[in-house]
Amino acid sequence: MDGFMRPASLPRPFLTPGVGVLMLLALNGLVFLAGRFLFGIGAVTNLTNQYPWGIWIGIDVAAGVALAAGGFTTAALGHVMHREQYHAVVRPALLTAMLGYTFVALGVCIDIGRSYYIWHPLVYWNGTSALFEVGICVVIYIHVLYIEFLPVVTERFLGRVSLPGPLARLDPLVERLLRFLDRGLARTMSVFIIAGVVLSTLHQSSLGTLMVIAGPKMHPLWQTPILPLLFLLSAVSVGFPMVILESLLAARSFGLKPEMHVLSGLGRMTAPLLGITLAFKMGDMFIRETFVHLGACDTAGIMFMTEVLVGIVIPLRMFLSRDVLKSPPLLFTASALVVAGVAINRVNNFIIAYTPPYALKSYHPSFGEVSVTVGLISLLVLLYRASVIVFPVISLPDRTLARAKYTVKG
Amino acid sequence: MARLSRRQFLTGTAMFGAELAGLAPAARAATRREPSPDRTGVLVDTSVCIGCRSCEFACKKAHGLETPPLESYEDRSVFAERRRPDHTALTVVNRYDNLRDPELPVAVKAQCMHCAYPACVSACIVGAFTKRPDGAVVWDTGKCIGCRYCMIACPFQVPAFEYHKALQPRIMKCDFCSARRGEGKIPACVEICPVEALTFGPREDLLRIARDRVKRFPDRYVSHVFGEAEVGGTDWLYISGVDFSALQFPQLGRSPAPGVSESIQHGIFAYFVPPVSLYALLGAVMWISKNSPESGEEA
Ligand code: SF4
Ligand code: SF4
Ligand code: SF4
User: Fold this and answer.
1) In chain B, positions 101-160, which contact chain A (CB-CB < 8 Å)?
2) What digits encode the pLDDT tens for the residues B172-204?
3) What is the ipTM of this complex?
4) Does domain B40-263 have CATH number 3.30.70.20?
5) pTM of the model as a whole
């Protein structure tokens, strides 16, 4: 399913000082996680009956889903619209999405009080619940992502299966299985790719519907019937910046040359997407006349301004400039701003905007909550690193090979 | 995938579409549930309530919750701070200053309002909440996954969660004494109330009584029956001598809390037409762009 660039495993050592730090952070998170499962959610978090959702939902789940949107936007670009030159970024984005959604599911398991009932929504349906819709779509989408990633696995092991010791006798069998998978997948992959895009569109927007039912409990700056549309637009616009950010980080960390022509192409496409998001956000603000709340200069107003200025306006201006598109550090900055902006937006929607009646005290995440969130993110990065070392994910600039393949195709 | 033939591609796409369409009946079933016209409710007259908190005691007894003896409820010091129903008490009484008559503070009993169009029922991911024909909104421990979305949704911030439990934490809220009523008894709080501040009966009748009292004694009551219209109506109704905003009642509109989100939800999922059309559209784009002569020439 790949284009003319050649993805390859990266022959690099897994352990570096940075990796050590991440491992410590992950370990710290696991300690608090054990506390949560042994003594209940209340033992680790600052959640109350007035503030039932904290950063585990706001960051791990809501921001996580949004930032994994690169998977479906690049799939749409590379596979649905067949823009071959972007195939180099499809796999890294797919890997991020796959790991990202896995951790979202993990985050949900951690946050819900009865983790062992995580399968209940598959059996007990409630069609009126936005959360049910998000849940079902995410479950199906995770499977789609794993299926989309399978060819990468078969590619890595086809013809290279060698199980250790006595298991070696099974080699031919495994080989045959892989071959069967490979052939079946090649035939049906487009079905899954389109399904992945449809499912993403659905749950990215339904994630916005989630808070609509909170009605007046949500600050008017954010509470709007077009929340689902805003969520979808911002998810679409954060997809490419996230891919750019990752590619530049990976290039840096593995000592590769960044594929600037691909990345600036993505950057160029981000500008109009940000523009559309901004237009709807501002239109909504003026139609509902919520700008009056900005004058108050309270936390809500400041956070709203931050997400709009830092996350949309400034990077929009940057992506419109040729110099930014050509310079890795500037492109990195612009992308990081969009990513931060969307993350802030999700936290705003799920935590800052939520102002319940009868709040006895306000919510601040506890040390345990932060530890678990940081730990999960560290674990995610570690898995990403391990994956690109083992599997052919990142495209190496193997131009001769690329050209050869390209000619065959044309 | 690049080697996919046109036919294989089309069959695959069509099959997936058909599969989605097969799910459609579930979406169709999810139409607005109208509450039963015969449902019951309780009228709380805060101008009668003396704040004795016997109802708190009776409620705990009826639900098997730990409670000190009734005498200890005479302790007025609890009114020093505002309390909310939680997993230890499904109903609590708070005391508020009365600006019209400082000598006569207002005591207000709080519990689930048993909404006509409950947000908790609409929101729960597994449908663990049900609105019963008798008016009670009840919760099913067998389904609940502990996601706490009901707490996000409830406009009165009523459902409470057992945060201290690692196993089977429950969502706790007033269940309108479903068990007692199954035995033909009236709700425990109504039964114990020494001054008849609580009236139990068909909601229609209660509404008539409430309107009548408010109209006949304009000096005694503000002309507002809380719960008559709020969020589409609640089965527990309140009347009061002071403005409800001074008693920490939330200001709510007349439309049912789940209205907007359910119409969005049904819009996105109208018989699965939008998702399936999107699927078809993307399929078409994919097919066209794959077969366009330029597709290989970019880069
Ligand atoms: S008050 Fe809250 S918990 Fe009670 S029925 Fe209404 S929405 Fe549900
Ligand atoms: S916590 Fe339980 S009752 Fe509440 S929405 Fe979640 S599953 Fe439903
Ligand atoms: S028992 Fe009756 S009078 Fe006493 S606090 Fe409860 S509602 Fe008020």
Assistant:
1) 119, 122-128, 143-149, 151-153, 155-157, 159-160
2) 999 999 999 999 999 999 999 999 999 999 999
3) 0.90
4) yes
5) 0.88
